[in-house]
Amino acid sequence: MDNLYRLINLMQLLRDPEDGCPWDNRQTFASLVPYTIEEVYEVAAAVDKQDFSLLREELGDLLLQIVFYAQMAREQDLFDIDDVARSISDKLVRRHPKIFEEETAPDMATWDDIKAAERKAKQGSGSLLDDIPEALPQLLRAWKVQERAASVGFDWQETRPVLAKITEELDELGEALAAEDAQDRLVEELGDLLFSAVNLGRHLDISAEEALRKSNEKFLSRFREVERQMAQQGKRLADCSMEEMEQAWQAAKLA
């Protein structure tokens, strides 16, 4: 734990108004958010690569973000890093009564039951969807919205109608294109199609965010192979015909 305390102390020094780092002192809760999101994705990339040396490094970068938020909160007398650790520890104990409570009933509530009860207590008379963060990546946010609605039965019970909904939304997008509708209508129809695709992924227990990330990586790999093939022929992609690039693309798929 010595190194954790060292990190906390370093952050305090960096945030010192007189002798600290000017960049660190300029930061606010809001300004840190993009960096935090970026660090989470870099952790995911390290896991995907199974590069555990890189994962250790990226987890350190993510931990720095948490310590940074906690230090700013401490300066404003809101909370500190100990409060953060206490909060998550209390939550773990509360949500695992069968493990941490000495006396447990056989019908003790599940994690989801307890989480739902906590949400209801926070929510009061508000919407079931109120506490879903707006800053989430939109594919993940769509999943959370659908999952929350499904928790009260607002969901299809099987996959077939979800697939039919995707076909319906694709047809509506095609109709909007054929009618040369305004851009805002096309945006709406494309959004409906993406929302339905996320719903299909949820029913198949496939994260749309993860599926799209893998497709991005696949495209990147194949496109780089097309670039390599064209370079071997002494050609620039900008000077190649679509037919040449398609032929190279098919070869990349086979590879």
Order of helices and strands: HHHHHHHHHHHH
What is the helix content?
over 70%
What general outline do the C-alpha atoms trace? extended
What is the CATH architecture term of the largest domain? Orthogonal Bundle
Number of helices: 12
The structure class reads mainly alpha
Termini separation: 48 Å
Sheet bearing the most strands, described? none
Number of domains: 3
What fraction of residues sit in β-strands?
under 5%
CATH class of the largest domain: Mainly Alpha
Q: Uncertain regions: pLDDT < 50 for 5+ in a row?
A: none
The CATH homologous superfamily of the largest domain corresponds to MazG-like
Radius of gyration: 25 Å
- Report the CATH topology name of the largest domain: Helix Hairpins
Number of separate strands: 0
pLDDT averaged residue by residue: 89
Question: Can you tag this structure with a few keywords?
Answer:
extended, single chain, Helix Hairpins, 255 residues, mainly alpha
Task: Give a verbal description of the structure.
This protein has 255 residues and is mainly alpha-helical. It has 3 domains: 2-95, Helix Hairpins (Orthogonal Bundle), CATH 1.10.287; 138-206, Orthogonal Bundle (Helix Hairpins); 211-254. Helix content is 73%, strand content 0%. It contains 12 helices and no strands. The protein has helices at 2-14, 22-26, 29-49, 52-75, 81-95, 97-100, 111-123, 138-150, 160-178, 183-203, 208-232, 242-254. The chain is extended and about 60 Å long. The mean pLDDT is 89.
Helix and strand layout, with pairings?
Blueprint: H1 2-14, H2 22-26, H3 29-49, H4 52-75, H5 81-95, H6 97-100, H7 111-123, H8 138-150, H9 160-178, H10 183-203, H11 208-232, H12 242-254
Helix pairs in contact: 1-4, 3-4, 8-10, 9-10, 11-12
